[in-house]
Amino acid sequence: MEQVRMWRAPGEGRVLLMAGRTTRYAVDPRGEYVFGVVGGEPMRSWRGRQKRVVRPGQLVAWDPSYPHSGRSVDESRPWDARLMVIEVADLAALAEDAEADPLADVLFPEPVLNDPELAAGFLRLHATLEAPSSRLEQDERLVEWLRLLIDRTSAIRSARPAITSQDDRALRSALEYLADQPERNVGLDELAGVAGIGKFRLIRLFRQRTGLPPHALQLAHRIRAARRLLEAGVPIAEAAEATGFADQSHLHRHFQRSLGMTPAEYQHRFG
């Protein structure tokens, strides 16, 4: 039993918003954070071997470290939720302040948060991103809420291993190359050539900085590009071809694993 709608706020394409009722879900967050508030009924959540009960009014903050899933405590009674999905790169861009220390990896070791102030702030933010509002108001509320959440609840930002300026330039070049053309069948030799460093060193840098190997990040880019095409009403087969998937079934398999729904379901619920 699912009644879920999805949308993006006008002018704020970095955030995917959801609202509705469901009795179960399963998500493999490839380089994405999922935030939300549960209402109505409780739900049971699983992440790895960890099991939790999320009660109405509690905030969830899922980082990309593990797949997670949920199921209603009573299968006949769905829970309500408002959710927000933000890509890792966008979270850093939104929450980082040039005058503060650079934002490193943000982890939420305890993803179920019993913090009424943060939960209420999230609901106000969600309403702002749903209703007509100025871009400035959207940006202010989003940045302020993210900073409060990170400062109050995240783990001490994990220290990133020191890398040289050459490594940093190489990684940025490789990241931009994959992001700019996710549909291309890029090989590791080609990607290392763009970066100007060795293949194994490049793989290590990817894992250190993104938590993903190059091929997994490329897949994440492809899925996100396919989302945008589906949101615009592009037929599924065309979206699969345009974003580098072998065929429609290939997109279907990875899309469902990533977001817990098929491309057709996503396209139906969006808007």
From TrEMBL:
Pfam families in the cross-refs = AraC_binding (PF02311), HTH_18 (PF12833)
Q: Which domain of life is it from?
A: Bacteria
Which SUPFAM superfamilies does the annotation name? Homeodomain-like, Regulatory protein AraC
Describe the location of the HTH araC/xylS-type domain by residue ranges: 172-269
Query: GO: which molecular function terms?
Result: DNA-binding transcription factor activity; sequence-specific DNA binding
- Keyword annotations for this protein? Activator, DNA-binding, Transcription, Transcription regulation
Repeat: present as a keyword of the record?
A: no
Identify the PANTHER family for this entry: HTH-TYPE TRANSCRIPTIONAL ACTIVATOR RHAS-RELATED, TRANSCRIPTIONAL REGULATORY PROTEIN
Q: What is this protein called?
A: AraC family transcriptional regulator
Q: Source taxonomy lineage?
A: Bacteria, Bacillati, Actinomycetota, Actinomycetes, Propionibacteriales
